[in-house]
Amino acid sequence: MTGIYKTFNVDTPNELTVLHGADFHVDEGEFVAVVGQSGSGKSTLMNIIGLLDKPTEGTYTLAGDDVAEYNDDKLAVLRNRRIGFIFQNFNLVARISARKNVEMAMMYAGISRKERTRRADELLDMVGMADRADHQPSELSGGQKQRVAIARALANDPDILLADEPTGALDSQTGRLVMDLFHELHEQGRTIVFITHNPELAEETSRIVTMVDGNIA
């Protein structure tokens, strides 16, 4: 990202610029933590990284694609195939199994039912949830839900994992297990952007990026 500005309510009395020409890069295979106080622009930066929002100004190149000017349909395709999202509150779909939750991202990518099921079972086994594949989210603990969410994020073999406070809703012991899983994924060559308020967890990553008032400090 180069010279990224994000302004809300443009040309109104409530105009607010949240990102002020931020320059941000991540190399393939890096494990980067993004830290900063509330209001520093972390969430806005995350939404732009994840193609959930567009910058007002600036360029953003993701795996060779200049995405800043893409339309919503093109962004949706890239988002599905190139970015795996992991959220603080898991965002699993209730009343369907862990396996079906993992399969959903692949369904939108047009992968066959047989291959979806095979890969979902493979990913659930990788995160230690094979024995819970048929359980619904309401039957899982917080840590188990997050491991299912990580499996779902990996479903389409994305270029980048974007984790927004992934241990924030977990107790310290469970958070430790989830963090260990991120280290395993990094060792496998995964590119991870890890947004956190926890300075101890940030210290475990390869590089820490600090945001202050909409800028990379």
CATH H-level homologous superfamily name: P-loop containing nucleotide triphosphate hydrolases
Round the Cα radius of gyration to an integer and report it: 18 Å
Strand order, largest beta sheet: 7-8-9-3-10-11
What is the 3D form? globular
The total domain count is 1
Order of helices and strands: EEEHEEEHEHHHEHEHEE
In the CATH hierarchy, what is the architecture at level 2? 3-Layer(aba) Sandwich
Helix content: 25-40%
Number of DSSP helices? 7
**How many β-strands, per DSSP?**
11
Instruction: Please report which band the strand proportion falls in: under 5%, 5-15%, 15-25%, 25-35%, 35-45% or over 45%.
Output: 15-25%
CATH top level is Alpha Beta
Mean pLDDT: 93
Describe the structure.
It holds the Pfam family ABC_tran. It comes from Corynebacterium casei LMG S-19264. This is ABC-type transport system, involved in lipoprotein release, ATPase component. By secondary structure, the chain is α/β, with parallel strands linked by helices. It has one domain: 3-Layer(aba) Sandwich (Rossmann fold). It has seven helices and eleven strands. Strands 7-8-9-3-10-11 form a six-stranded mixed beta sheet, sandwiched between helices. A three-stranded antiparallel beta sheet has the order 2-1-4, with no helix packed on it. The longest helix is centred in the C-terminal third of the chain and has 16 residues.
Summarize this entry quickly.
Residues 2-217 form the ABC transporter domain. This is ABC-type transport system, involved in lipoprotein release, ATPase component. The protein has 217 residues and is an alpha/beta fold.
